[in-house]
Write a structure and sequence with these properties.
Blueprint: E1 3-9, H1 15-31, E2 35-41, H2 45-51, E3 58-61, H3 72-80, H4 89-96, H5 98-107, E4 115-119, H6 120-125, E5 133-136, E6 147-149, H7 156-162, E7 168-173, E8 178-185, E9 188-197, H8 205-208, E10 214-217, H9 224-241, E11 246-254, E12 262-269, H10 279-286, H11 291-305
Parallel strand pairs: 1-2, 1-3
Antiparallel strand pairs: 4-7, 5-6, 5-7, 8-9, 8-11, 9-10, 11-12
Helix pairs in contact: 1-11
Length: about 300
């Protein structure tokens, strides 16, 4: 029987998300016929390495955020010569750095939001863009730390004072409209999903992970040209970063002036959230792929690449 170690938990701001994922993935892999060893990851890397002895046949990386999907744990697993799910060191690192990823997207002609990298001192001093604009940490996920600055709300200096994500930030124009996402499995763009916040709120961390706060419409009810274009952009972005396995591309879709609207690629998640209710799982099910089958596919692809 194939033995799979599931790494979950971690030390990032998204630890709680990963703690939800680990048991769900473990249960799905057992259902698919694997021998599963869950390993909760903390701040002691040597303990993680010790838990991976003897070597499993593969690691299912269910970690989220920094040190889990930014190339760090991927490098450790490469050193240990253990096959692992999702993208490799380089693609993971590039995707997690929003500014680096945007540079690559732009080089491939993909639509991104107008913006720039700034210091927090610059943000405290003046508006870097005409409001409204968005302030983002450079290397966090799940909308951790994302702030929207509207004209006249006097929050800019307050956001700068409270900033805890390093000395720099990415600022981008605020794109009105809808939140869309496209999951990728290998060379297949699965579907476009419209993520609808029930109270019309911005999809911040709390909204994303509060049960019942959003609903997922798959396939998204948007213009066919925009739908096809979103699938194409997501697959191109996946390939441009050098990703492998499953990813998820997130978009803003400005249809406020009518359709087809303007698509803006925000980021590629190299390790999308993964529970039976997650966006990627829902899109896979749209193709008749169950959650255990999706998790098994990820492990099989990892072993094949070893």
């Amino acid at each position: 029987m194939v033995r799979v170690a599931v790494l979950y938990g971690g030390i990032s701001a998204e630890r709680e998300v990963s703690l939800w994922m680990g048991p769900e993935v473990s249960a799905a892999l057992r259902c698919a016929g694997f021998e599963v060893e869950p390993i909760e990851v903390g701040d002691d890397l040597s303990a993680v390495i010790a838990a991976l002895r003897p070597k499993p046949d593969a690691v299912f990386n269910a970690l989220q955020g920094r040190f889990g999907e930014d190339g760090a744990i991927q490098g450790v697993l490469e050193w240990l010569n253990i096959p692992y799910t999702h993208s490799g060191v380089c693609a993971s690192s590039l995707a997690q750095n929003k500014d680096a990823a945007k540079t690559i997207f732009a080089a491939h002609g993909l639509p991104t939001a107008r913006g720039c990298l700034i210091t927090i001192d610059d943000l405290a001093a003046s508006d870097p863009l005409p409001p409204p604009y968005v302030v983002k940490p450079l290397n966090e996920g799940s909308s951790v730390g994302v702030e929207i600055i509207n004209g006249g709300d006097n929050r800019r200096a307050e956001v700068a004072r409270a900033w805890r994500f390093g000395s720099t930030a990415l600022v981008e124009e605020y794109v009105p409209g809808r939140d869309l996402t496209v999951g990728i499995m290998g060379d297949l763009a699965l579907a476009v999903t419209d993520i609808v916040a029930k109270d019309g709120r911005f999809l911040d961390y709390q909204t994303k992970y509060t049960r019942g706060a959003t609903r997922h419409v798959t396939p998204a009810l948007i213009h066919p040209e925009a739908y096809a274009h979103a699938l194409e952009i997501a697959l191109t972005a996946h390939r441009a970063l050098g990703c492998r396995g499953a990813t998820r591309a997130d978009f803003r879709y400005d249809d406020t002036a009518g359709e087809p609207g303007r698509l803006v690629l925000l980021e590629v998640n190299t390790q999308p959230g993964l529970t039976p209710a997650s966006l990627l799982s829902g899109q896979a099910l749209h193709h008749g792929i169950t959650f255990p089958e999706l998790c098994a596919w990820m492990v099989e692809k990892a072993i094949c690449r070893a």
